[in-house]
Amino acid sequence: MRILIVEDEEKMARYLKKGLEESSYVVDIALNGTDGLHLATHEVYDLLILDIMLPEHDGKTILKEVRSAGIITPVIFLTAKDSIADRVEGLNIGADDYIVKPFSFHELLARVRVCLRRGSHKTSSELTVGDLTLDPLTRKVFRGKKKIEMSPIEFSLLEYLMQHAGQVVTRTMISEHVWDSNFESFSNVVDVHIAKLRSKIDKHFDINLIHTQRGAGYVIEEPD
């Protein structure tokens, strides 16, 4: 799962990023409204966490632009504004939740999970390629009747491949989705994790599903 945090207090943003990454989420941060709006409308995220009072573009403006673009990604507002009117306005313009500062990280994490579950019910269902199945909600993977154990990174990588089944995805596309926007795509980390994934998904089965497109990237599909 990939999360964008738009928060102008850098210390707070880094704290949230660290905590969410420790819970196996991939996290990007933006420290102002301009960068936040650009990332929110040009990258694909599973959740947006927006401070309301931001330089350049405030959180409400970002949310309105995101919704105007047809993006239904769940949004949590973080703010020091705690009046009922502020909360009602935030929810009315399209936020899924509203958390008042100061807050407990454990509370934020619980609300993140709730929003992601809601988003999964709206947009995700079991993914299937050949006899390989992946359930985004239970986070279980099966090849035929054999359950395959996955690390969080392996699960995210496989989920991304299966969401684009039959399409070639480049190393840059994979790295930006599974890791973060600052990932060094010229490193061999993607290839290493693809190799680990193949050892679990393909190695002990008659039909290989993960294929290399030389000079382009990878594709997961059932061969003709």
Automatic annotation (TrEMBL):
InterPro entries, per database record: CheY-like_superfamily (IPR011006), CusR-like (IPR006291), OmpR/PhoB-type_DNA-bd (IPR001867), Sig_transdc_resp-reg_receiver (IPR001789), WalR-like (IPR039420), WH-like_DNA-bd_sf (IPR036388)
Keyword Phosphoprotein (UniProt): yes
Lineage: Bacteria, Pseudomonadati, Planctomycetota, Candidatus Brocadiia, Candidatus Brocadiales
Species of the source: Candidatus Scalindua japonica
Name of the protein described by the UniProt record: Response regulator
NCBIfam families, alphabetized: cztR_silR_copR (TIGR01387)
All copies of domain OmpR/PhoB-type, residue ranges: 124-222
GO MF entries: phosphorelay response regulator activity; transcription cis-regulatory region binding
DNA-binding region: 124-222
Pfam families linked: Response_reg, Trans_reg_C
Domain Response regulatory: 2-116
